[in-house]
Design a protein that fits this description.
mainly alpha, Arc Repressor Mutant, subunit A
Length: 93
């Protein structure tokens, strides 16, 4: 997507990083670049607003916790996979 106007930061770059921006997972310099683009580009600002609303809706809707049995099964599987990965890393052919 592009609004057709020239910007320091391309619209596609902003839209690719919108979730990182929303989560505060970009460095300070990048934050300023993205914020500056959103200040001058209405289409990207609109898309950012939509993504922010979706993120807030999901956060409000997903407040359930996994059943204890499922949590234990997932943790056990993670341990098995981690052990398998470790054994493969140290295997000498």
């Amino acid at each position: 997507m592009s609004c057709g106007d020239p910007h320091e930061v391309d619209c596609s770059e902003v839209l690719e990083t919108v979730y990182l921006y929303l989560d505060g997972e970009i460095d300070h310099a990048e934050l300023g670049r993205i914020r500056g683009h959103l200040d001058e580009c209405s289409p990207c600002l609109r898309e950012y607003g939509i993504e922010r609303e979706v993120k807030q809706l999901v956060a409000r809707s997903c407040c359930e916790t996994a059943p204890e049995g499922l949590r234990h099964a997932v943790i056990a599987r993670i341990r098995v996979v981690r052990a398998e990965m470790t054994s493969v890393e140290f295997r000498v052919d």
